[in-house]
Amino acid sequence: MAYQAGGQRSVPRSVPERSEAEAYLRDYATLVEAVPFPSVVVDHRWDVVLANTAFASLFRCVGPHPTAMPDDNFLRFVLFHPDASTVLGDHESSWCLPMLAHFAAAVELHGHDHGLQAIRREIAQDPLMEAAYRQGLPHWIRAVGERAVAQDGAVRPLLHPDPRWGATDCRVVDETPRTLREMGHTRLTLVLREVRRDRPRARAVRRGAARLRVVPTPED
Prior knowledge:
Radius of gyration: 17 Å
Strand order of the largest sheet: 4-3-7-6-5
Largest sheet: 5 strands, antiparallel
Shape: globular
Strand content: 5-15%
Mean pLDDT: 85
Number of helices: 7
Number of strands: 7
Distance between the termini: 50 Å
Low-confidence stretches: 1-10, 201-211, 216-220
Oligomer: single chain
């Protein structure tokens, strides 16, 4: 199923003392693997619980990173991995800012979570990202509307390493069943769109520029 640097993880991460939940996740992993599009199950920290082969294939060309691999924590990948912009088109506006908004919502619900606190400290260590989080993000949400930060239904550009897809779009679809939601997990599938050869290619930020660089700031 999901891949990590240095090997393949063929079973979902353990859920301590919950054998029924573990059995459910094992069976659900089979369902996720059968989907032809990239599909991932994450917890409230965006730690990856399950991911299918199509998800691994989408990110197969990204380099190693100690804390921000896409199959380890997808939020960290979007915000901190230097190769994120080589896969996620229009990286800042289409991926970083919405993910910062989701992170802010998670902090409101789980403010004492150590994993979320660690991400918050890492954001604070980057002056531009900290400014984006504290000042730019509220202004951006007011400018584009709440719908722009919604996960389900969002259409976002991708740069797929498979030339059959190449520069394309995906629609993010929330496919979380009740049992999974009760576990505190969310399943997202990136439904890839057929490539239109006459469309402009999605723009990628150069490698090494994972941090936000240009963020709207509130007007005085």
